[in-house]
Amino acid sequence: MTKQKNDWGFFLTTISLFSGILFFFPILWLVLSSFKGSGELFAYPLNFLPQEFTLENYQRVINNGFFQYVYNSFVIAIVGTVITVVINSMCGYALAVYRKKIGYTGFVSGIFLLGMLIPSETLVISQFSVISFLGMYNSIWGVILPVVTTTTGIFMYRQFFIGVPDSFIEAARMDGASEAKIFLKIMLPLAKPTTITLIIFSFMWRWNDFILPLLVLSTQNQYTIQIAIRNYISAWTTDWSSILAGSVISMIPITVLFIVLQKYIVGTNLASGNK
To answer: Of 152, 165, 142, 145, which Cα lies nearest the Cα of 88?
Structure first.
């Protein structure tokens, strides 16, 4: 029986390792290709490693003002993420804590869940009309505000707060704590794993968003990093070297964010389990 378990574990480990290599290989190819010259990218036969290592691709995109687009994406992603966490946590808290006092909270939660069935692309025209009416066209607020409320974030917070015993809240109320203090001092710290997860998701959504910034922003110095990469493709030519370099630069913040926050997710979950 033990030998069968060891064989099965070895088999699963091998499959996992092979799957990881398959997943990581295109990313590694992308990174290595960004250090190749334009002529080497499409040379036959293809070379996995650069024959002549060069930083020319990165120098070109940096000299073209690429860091300005990186800065714009950072502003949109960070500000949007902060507002998203604030609004979604409060909404999820209200739908969870007051579900027994207010009867229609379940219906409201169901309406939010139905929103997940609607493709975001079908809302683009309506969003653009509202953005134009409010005078937020060609403004970063026109990119940030329409998507600060996410069904995923509300659902995550609601499900977490439902799992918190009501005795926590009742004890705080008996001690004279206000609803704002209960939310900020008790419930929100308990929801740290949910908050960190939503931070990762929200930052990633806004950092990689392409359609909404493309529709809202018309001034080049306000472009995000994804629009800047798209501009390397024209009707006649495609600057693949710049696209590869820009894509590698765009992956760095997301990778660093996940590496830094991953340990907090795991650590908080373990602490919650021990408690």
So the answer is: 152
